[in-house]
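tool_call: predict_structure(chain=1)
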Amino acid sequence: MRVLDAGCGEGVLSVMLAQRGAIVTGCDLSIPNIENARHHSKEVGVDNIEFLVADLENIPFADSSFDLVVSSHVLEHLPDFDQGLREIMRVTKRRAVIAIPTILNPCSMVQVGGGWFYLKGPRSFLAVFWGFLKMFRALTLGQEGVNESYGREDIPHIFRFPWIMKSKINKEKFKLTEYEASSLCLPYFSNGLLVIKFLDQYKSKKIFRNLGYGTTYVVEK
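tool_result:
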């Protein structure tokens, strides 16, 4: 199986897929990321993998080049989200698995509110309320989501409402076959892994699948 990891970062997911027998191509816009990915793949000793620098809004492969495309928390960084989605679906023969951050989870609200959900402190506790207000404002204004606004101003990091991705998939006439919350994690639960593990049993259920820190979508042509 030929797999494209679109926005591979430092190649962690790419290497995992290669270790399971896939023939993997990883692409990323960042030259340092690609250099680190190549180094990582050599360290673990996989040779059924290659990495290249590429723009996800203009993926340098022909139509239907891959059996599967995966993209984990990448589209939210693109200036043109819709173009990135179209390119992913263009180069896959049939299916793509796409994960993006979504806004309805309390951890997401902490992040867009200026805190870190895994840290306890005055700033983080206030961040969940500030993030909720930002989320509510975006909802009432009909916006796609909330930009976390970290790092460079020209690189967005938007936590979208779950239904936005579904509407984009429908708009492009692709088929959403299934989706689920990446995790139903809770903020400040540094010792609450058992609680989170219990909650994650329900991450594919109705209602709950919209409440993840991120959401994973399986999309087909």
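agent: The radius of gyration is 18 Å. Proceeding to next step.
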